[in-house]
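FAQ: What does the model actually see?

It sees only this:
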Amino acid sequence: MSTESADKKARAVRARRERTHASERTSGQKGSAARLARTIVLGTMAVSGAIVWIGDQYGIEPEETLQFLAYSAIFVVGLVFAGLFGALMLSLLKLLIKRLRGGSD
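And it is asked to produce this:
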């Protein structure tokens, strides 16, 4: 067996080993979206509970605290939608400018 074929075989073995390790790394990430969603929900619940508890410590009624929390959530969601709307408008403007210049790209 020549050194060239031995080198080729060694490279093939290393490449196969790299693919195996890469697949092992990515297989552990399959549930990452579900884990992220669960973490967001649990974090939101914990923060909401903490806000209600702090409001109770300062003598604010829990209903009023929840109302403030709901208004804050609505405000944040509104900001998210405003950002998405702005991004959509910018992408449409970019597309319009590209078409007006006659570019096919």
